[in-house]
Design brief:
By secondary structure, this protein is α+β, with helices and mostly antiparallel strands. It has a single domain, classed as Mog1/PsbP, alpha/beta/alpha sandwich (Protein Transport Mog1p, Chain A, 3-Layer(aba) Sandwich). It contains three helices and seven strands; from the N terminus they run E-E-E-H-H-E-E-E-E-H. The strands form two sheets. A five-stranded antiparallel beta sheet has the order 1-7-6-5-4, sandwiched between helices.
């Protein structure tokens, strides 16, 4: 099982763009396109626009794919605030660890990303 956190700022023509200007929908589409180009045999499981317990919007994309001969299940959670986006990636083998999926989903509902 792996859990990674990435802070990103989007740029347009070399100028930084605030997360609040771009929006989670556009940035998450960029992530989906980028991951799909880098990954073979992507099977989308789900994609949802959700809200945290505090009412803040976020995006969840769940997909499965093969990487270096391993079948993986991955979930991407995208949050945006101020100038930055926070992307959380949760991954595990398809064949094991499914019991952690609900725990990670519940944890993401409580995440507070504010800057």
């Amino acid at each position: 099982m792996i859990l990674t956190f990435s802070l990103d700022q989007s740029n347009m023509f070399g100028s930084p763009m605030d997360a609040d200007e771009i929006g989670i929908a556009l940035f998450s589409a960029h992530i989906q396109d980028t991951i799909s180009e880098m990954t073979q045999n992507v099977v989308q499981v789900s994609e949802d626009f959700l809200n945290t317990a505090e009412g803040e919007p976020y995006f969840r994309w769940v997909m499965e794919h093969n990487s270096n001969g391993k079948q993986l299940h991955q979930a991407f959670y995208v949050f945006g605030s101020g100038k930055l986006f926070l992307t959380v990636m949760y991954g595990r083998p398809i064949s094991s660890g499914a019991e952690y999926d609900a725990i990670i989903d519940e944890a993401m509902k409580t995440l507070m990303f504010d800057q």
